[in-house]
Amino acid sequence: MAREPDLYQQLGVARDASADEIKKAYRRLARKYHPDVNPGDKAAEEKFKEINQAFDILSDEKKRALYDQYGMDAAKFGWDPAKAAAFRQWQTGGAPGGGRVRWEGFGGGAGPEVDFGDIFGDIFGDIFGARARGAGARRARANWPEEGEDIGARIEVDLADVVRGAEKEIVVQRPGGPSRLKVRIPAGLAENGKIRLAGQGGPGINGGPPGDLYLEVHVRPHPLVRREGDDLHMALPLTVSEAVAGATITLPTFDGEVQLKIPPGTQSGRKLRLRGKGVPHLRGGGRGDLYVEARIVVPTGSAAEEVARQLDPLYQGDVRAELRRL
After folding, report:
1. Inter-residue contact 160 to 252 (CB < 8 Å)
2. Where in the chain is the domain with CATH 2.60.260.20?
3. What is the pTM of this model?
């Protein structure tokens, strides 16, 4: 006796696979083994029939539950829970010769009573009738509408686009030629983030819906600003007098100019934090911060050297004393 096929193995998914995982596995295999892609290949045609049957059952919540409990025997009973349960109870010794039995529902607890004697005529009629219908059903499945192929593309945007959010016009290569599309770049999108454009993929087969277009977004490096998570970092050049005496400076940001107070005695390398001036959180609920790092710019020239020497007596101790601990 031929071994009953494992529908999960035919699709290459685990028994606890989600509905989305089952759909993705089917679409991948259907594209690979479709008769239009493999003309004259009988093995591919047979494989295509198998995966269509597997998807037909596992994509239907009711049929999948019956298959998990009864295997392919459930198909013989027209995917009728009452018939399948009654026949299985008869196999295990319940209600021999007919009579009424009570079967257990899928949600737990007792289900309705089933007249076992009345049901057997329908059961065996379904079994033998299914054989006659099988060939036609398999031929029909070969012409089922199928969703078009998903396609992917890579686009580049500026850092400002993912901080502020933006709408871009792009040109992508799709089956049939290039297409010009408008795409919204959501604020907070990360490097290599994905954007899905539903229905913008390959055309459907046999009247099926088109696939989707998936854009992978690359963010161009900014010459002045670096992103870390949802925080932004930038260097802040300061004059010696601004660092020593303190100052209020105008700082440009992606949200416009702000006034930043520099504390007196600011050392080179000190970081100042501007709350909420970073990248918006992609899922909402606030945004990151902007960190500016002080970089003291030393003037050059003979006059600057003379002034700098006058500052030497103001240093308290050896500025390199920590290095002696090495």
Report:
1. no
2. 151-219, 225-325
3. 0.56
